[in-house]
Amino acid sequence: MPKSIAIDGPAGAGKSTIAKKVSANLGFIYLDTGAMYRTVALKAINEGVDTKSQNDVEKIVENIDITISHENNTQKIFLDGVDVSEAIRTPEVSAGASNVAVFKEVRLKLVDLQRKIASDKNVVMDGRDIGSYVLPNADLKIFLTATVDERARRRYEELLQKGQKVDFEEVKADMIIRDNNDSSRTFAPLVKAEDAIEVDSTSMTIDEVVEKIMYYYLEAGKTSPLQ
Ligand code: CDP
Ligand code: CDP
């Protein structure tokens, strides 16, 4: 059985940064499931479809072609054969992703893809419902949190560095809307799995969080990469 680590939590908690490093340490692949929801949203936006319209979004997802590749521990995501890894990182796509993620048909399709990848390879997977729904038997489940101010500050800095013009209060407001969307949807919401370990990263550095998760996996966890 391939090994798996699930990292869930709200936006800006540090999931992808931490998951990338943990997967590199262990030689696992890193699977960013948020990128898949973003890709569905990008297709809707490109086709002029309202990301809140269930019928239209379900039509889009019926024959969407999403493929993932991993090279040098970096995930690339392709929409209908085109690399959209960068195009999915805009605030518009962030908001759209949280809209399309509410629809069950969208989730079923993407979860199927996520489980297929994990059935074949050792993975560190990050998202909202990985420990609670996608991989209920993951070897380690982490629920990563931080205060909303700290998460918004991190995302704001990140967007500034990418040269995107943003307003802090707007970034924070968008994040709160997305958190609410994610926590309140009926199907596979953002929730801490019963057997997940909660890590509050508000005042922790990236390396401290990575060290803590490596400790849980190697020292206190159920498995060793040598096995
Ligand atoms: O994937 P998620 O939205 O949970 O967060 P992320 O994209 O990994 O992290 C958002 C930003 O916060 C990145 O720029 C990270 O470098 C930064 N970060 C941080 O400053 N301190 C941490 N402990 C974790 C992440
Ligand atoms: O990086 P950030 O945390 O801002 O977002 P992301 O992980 O790229 O996910 C984008 C959106 O996809 C989230 O706001 C969620 O609504 C949705 N998502 C989800 O519903 N389930 C997942 N497993 C991953 C993402």
TrEMBL record:
Residue ranges constituting the Cytidylate kinase domain according to the UniProt record: 5-216
UniProt EC number: 2.7.4.25
Position of the signal peptide: none
GO biological process: nucleobase-containing small molecule interconversion; pyrimidine nucleotide metabolic process
Superkingdom of the organism of origin: Bacteria
UniProt-annotated binding residues for ATP: G9, P10, A11, G12, A13, G14, K15, S16, T17
Main location: cytoplasm
The reaction(s) this protein catalyses: dCMP + ATP = dCDP + ADP; CMP + ATP = CDP + ADP
Keyword annotations: ATP-binding, Cytoplasm, Kinase, Nucleotide-binding, Transferase
Keyword Metal-binding on entry: no
Cellular component aspect of the GO annotation: cytosol
Top-tier EC class: transferase
Gene Ontology molecular function terms on file: ATP binding; dCMP kinase activity
Subcellular location: Cytoplasm
Cited InterPro entries: Cytidylate_kin, Cytidylate_kinase_dom, P-loop_NTPase
Similarity comment: Belongs to the cytidylate kinase family. Type 1 subfamily.
UniProt protein name: Cytidylate kinase
Species for this entry: Ruminiclostridium herbifermentans
